[in-house]
Amino acid sequence: MRANLPRRECARRVHTTAVSTDLEMRPATAPEFDAFYDSMSDTFFEGVFEVDVESERERFEPERSLTAWDAGSIVATGGIFSRQLTVPGGIVPMAGVTYITVAPTHRRQGLLTRMLLRQFTDLHDGGAEAVAGLWASEGGIYGRFGYGSAAPRALFTGSKPAFRPGTDLGTGRVRRVSKDALRPHAEAVYEVLRPRTVGHLDRSPAWWDRRLMDPEHWRDGATPNRYVVHEEADGSITGFAVFRVKADWSGAESNSQVIVMDLSGTTPQATARLWRFVLDLDLVSGFRRRLASPEEPVRYLVADPRTVKLEIVDSLWIRIVDLDRALAARRYQVELDVVLEVTDAHCAWNVGRWRLTGGRDGADVRRTSGHADLSLSTTELGAAYLGGTTLQALSAAGQVVEHTAGALRQASLAFGWDSAPWCPEVF
Known about the structure:
twelve-stranded mixed sheet, Nonspecific Lipid-transfer Protein, Chain A, alpha+beta
């Protein structure tokens, strides 16, 4: 993860008029990756660094990419990463939509629409992932294409707060390690957390390489990353943290900040001791964590909650590509039997009435001609899919309509889950 969150994940705003069909659109080949990357970086106004290029090349899936060509040059890019997403009650394949750009010279020609619709159609026709996900560089784009904001992230800042009296820090200790020594422990901790944390993604070796990259141009003037693990009395590792420090000696005393890049514990005691460690660093007056769960425990560990400032923004957006397979793949908090009347402006195969029955042991989704209990679009289903956005809240905004008394409350409860979803990495 880089200091400034990558902007390559999604498209810049494109106001579509008519869809252009005269430009060739096809997947990029592996040898065309450099041209693909240059076009994408140019549209996002990013510099090109060899370490970034090689990292992206390692994870690039040519057969799942898209390019639009004009006079021998790439003018639009798109792609998919093949990922696994933790959802309520299970893990499902997810098409990680990425690299979406349209060159400034080719805006308002419908290239964004054409690329996204082709992705939906290819996924559906090929029986591939029933769910797609992305991070949006601009929040106003993807709702138009059926994506719903499903997993918010939190940005935490604050001074060095005191912990609540009596906080249980356990009997473990925090130990400094090298990046190489950290990796197997971080992987093991993450694999404990991933199946039980909705919104988490699988990480191949290439994705771990990316996660632990620390080139200088990502640091924004801060130190290189430091690495620590939380070690129990028996020698087992139950947590880790990655952090850097941004020095500021502009005043008479240090106003330096510790920037928490990652902090994960498999027990409450490990999490608390790791936070205590980073907040107790000498010559540091404050902290910042830009990518955290809205339920990050530090909010509840401190004695004065006003010392921790919280900002909630969107992160993972979910698109229901094949409604029946997607809704059947997750579990539901309480028993549910509801008929949904669904609209979808781009995927006609999702349109109609669907009977959803399910609970914690499984779910069944099939077409029906029965009376609709609720009306909504796939945008709302995407927002509610991970359990972080309630159907009740969407109804209050006029986005879900109840036709049968009590159906909204029951469905809203059923779509919820035990904890808030959180996606800890940008892709």
